[in-house]
Amino acid sequence: MFKSFGQELRHFARSVDVFQEEKLREIQQMLKSYLSEKFYMYKLEFLRETTIDGEPGLAPQWDKTDKYGSYKVYQEDQTTPNGQNALCYATGRPLWIVAAEDIPLSDAEDYLDLWFGLENIPTFRRFSLNNRDWAERDETRTLVALPIWNYGRVFAVLYCESPQRLEPSSLAKEELMTLAESVSILYAVVNQNKSLRSNTSLALQELRESLSQKADFQLFKPQLFVAYSTRADSEVIGVLKKTLDKFSNYIDIVYWSDISHSGEINQQILSAIQTSKYGICFFSEPVAKAADGRKDNANVLFEAGMFHALMNDASAVPAAWIPVREKPPPPIPFDFA
Questions:
Q1: Cα 232 to chain center, whole Å?
Q2: For residue 268, what are the CA distances in angstroms to 261, 265, 299?
Q3: Residues of the chain by 3-state class (helix, strand, coil), percent to 5
Q4: Sign of the four-CA dihedral 99, 102, 103, 109
Q5: Of 36, 44, 35, 163, residue with least CA distance to 103
Q6: What is the pLDDT of residue 64?
Q7: Quick count: other Cβ atoms within 10 Å of Cβ 12?
Q8: Element (DSSP H or E) covering residue 56
Q9: How far apart are CA 62 and CA 48, in angstroms?
């Protein structure tokens, strides 16, 4: 079954899911060649919406001569479209514009829309850089402007021009609308790919930042180190162990008294403290000569000091520790605050 170029282009646009903006140049050249050969249209441009001084505007995307400039969609009254391409953008309707007489559009005062018969057509205008009217003589006698839709709204205008006064057939209209639909689909794919690339870059950056930061969670159960004196009240230690055992499914508990590996015991305790996220330090031990019958164990105080120091190191594991003392406690030998 025969398919027109527009139908083939639409099939291509619907088939691709990865399409870079650079490839649109090749599509542009194909369109230009096709329109000049079959429709006698010798100028092709894509006007994309932009903002000028806070107002909606149109900016040429395909022209590389730097001759044409952006311009506002509406004139100063904010209601009259600023030319015929602006009318296409504002109404969302395709236009086939010729002069009422067989003269260039730039010389005409009255225009006909041969597509839908739209009336009140604004003056044919072309803009150079700095939003100024085109100063050179223009021989355009036919202007075809096609709205480019995306997600229910017009975001661009594809227009072509001919120095001949052309009248459309229904087949020509259908083919041009198919071309416009194809361009719309391709731009949607390009924008989606841009968004995906941007999201990928952002996600990678977040991964890098996550890798460089200290994790707030552990893949394994956090470790709790429990320090107390060998002479600590066995009843108190029993209650402490019974309470902590209730949380054994959530935390690994290391009692200093269970460290029985051969080697330097102090080094092993230091290693246990350095790898523990939490600590409990039970200071009190009985002593006959003390007025209240107990004192703080020096070794446990030292281990508490190690926990306290490591908590201030962002790269260290320890995050918190809890002091436990029997009442009435003796004066603490230094300030942990």
A1: 59
A2: 8, 5, 14
A3: 35, 25, 40
A4: negative
A5: 163
A6: 67
A7: 14
A8: strand 55-60
A9: 10
CB atoms within 10 A of CB 154: 17
Query: What single letter denotes the amino acid at residue 17?
Result: D
Note whether 80 and 183 are same-domain residues: yes
Our count of domains for the chain comes to 2
Domain that holds residue 54: 5-192
Q: Could you report the per-residue pLDDT of 91-147, keeping only the tens digit for each? A: 999 999 999 999 999 999 999 999 999 999 999 988 776 555 554 678 999 999 999
CATH of the domain at 302: 3.40.50.450
Q: Domain check: are 187 and 252 in the same one?
A: no
Alpha helix ranges (H) inside 74-229:
84-91, 170-212
Are the C-beta atoms of 250 and 196 separated by less than 8 Å?
no
> Is residue 273 within 8 Å of residue 280, measured between CB atoms?
no
Spell out a b/e string for 232-250, using b for 16 or more CB atoms within 10 Å of the CB, else e.
bbeeebeebeeeeeeeeee
With beta carbons less than 8 A apart as the criterion, state whether 115 and 167 touch: no
For residues 289 and 134, give the distance between their C-alpha atoms in angstroms, rounded to a whole number: 105
Longest dimension (CA), the chain: 121
Model confidence pTM above 0.85: no
